[in-house]
Fold this protein.
Amino acid sequence: MKLYFTPGTCSLAPHIVLRELGLEVELERVRLGAPPVIASAQADYRRLNPNGYVPLLQLDDGSLLSEGVAILQYLADLQPERGLLPAATPLQRYESMRWLVYISSELHKMFSPWLFHPEYGEQAAEVARARIAKRLELVEHQLDGRGFLLGPAFTVADAYLFAIVSWAKPCKLPLDAFPQLQAWLERIGARPSVLAAQQAEKLR
Ligand SMILES: N[C@@H](CCC(=O)N[C@@H](CS)C(=O)NCC(=O)O)C(=O)O
């Protein structure tokens, strides 16, 4: 398998999950920009993903899977016994999906693009920060009494949330009001899979 990634972006989530599962993966760095470029080949990345964004997973038969939430579920389904996508009952699976969708639409897409594009201005950034802080209240409540987002064990939702909430500091979003979230960030950040992925992406 090959993961097209850009250091420190949302592609960190599938990268962490690949390492949690101990799967062999080739990392292919994408330099985002206009145009986005596959760094090793100096080729236009849009030939593979017309939307030009990461992550993108290439399977060994060459097929391509885009969209982070789909990639995370695909990876978890490769080793269901690892429980990275709780699905003991249909409701549990939908609860897992609910959180993946929440992270994607209410958090990820409030950070990006609003807090990564200075051209939108500080006023837009302030609105985004306030909205994200409001959305994090649900996360803080969910983490109360739980080791991980979906319960007692690490899941793909933790990997995704970690990749996104790690942007809080560079985006000047204080997390002081979220002690559970801060403790969770430290716990997740200490996992061998996370440390290895960050090291491979030269984030530490
Ligand atoms: N809907 C996509 C969005 C992915 C996304 O926003 N990726 C960002 C990095 S976190 C990116 O590559 N942005 C560059 C761009 O949009 O041109 C997903 O969830 O996978």
